[in-house]
Write a structure and sequence with these properties.
It is a single chain. The longest helix has 29 residues. By secondary structure, this protein is α+β, with helices and mostly antiparallel strands. It contains four helices and four strands, in the order E-H-E-H-E-E-H-H. Helix 1 packs parallel to helix 3. It has one domain: Glutaredoxin. It is globular, with a radius of gyration of 15 Å.
Length: 122
């Protein structure tokens, strides 16, 4: 299992936190992506992830999963440790609500700023 990411970016950090909470950081291979150099926009990368975003999870069978919430949900399901997504319908709904709030309210604003303020990324 591989995680394609870049250190210091907020979305990949969310996935690293999920892995740490599950005690699974040493059970995946981290593959650094040169976002500043445009590696995520290469044809090789876009073959795996047409959205050209990090983080991306690549399973041993070649299946690729993008988007933090989807990756975190997968991590929660395959690794032992505390539940990250909730154990009851009410917990799962509240966690999904908070994830959407974070995505729509904070992460999108940070991402928009970053893309416009960082040469070579947009």
């Amino acid at each position: 299992m591989k995680i394609y990411d870049i250190e210091g970016f907020p979305n990949p950090l969310r996935v690293r936190i999920a892995l740490a909470e599950k005690g699974a950081t040493n059970q995946v291979e981290f593959v650094p992506v040169d976002v500043m150099g445009g590696e995520h926009r290469s044809e090789a990368f876009k073959t795996k992830n047409p959205d050209a975003t990090v983080p991306m999870l690549e399973l041993d069978d070649g299946t690729c999963i993008a988007q933090c919430n989807a990756i975190t949900e997968y991590i929660d399901g395959v690794f032992d440790g505390p539940s990250l997504m909730g154990t009851t319908p009410a917990e799962r709904a509240r966690i999904a609500m908070m994830n959407l709030r974070a995505e729509n309210g904070l992460m999108n604003a940070v991402g928009a700023y970053f893309h416009h303020a960082t040469p070579g990324v947009a």
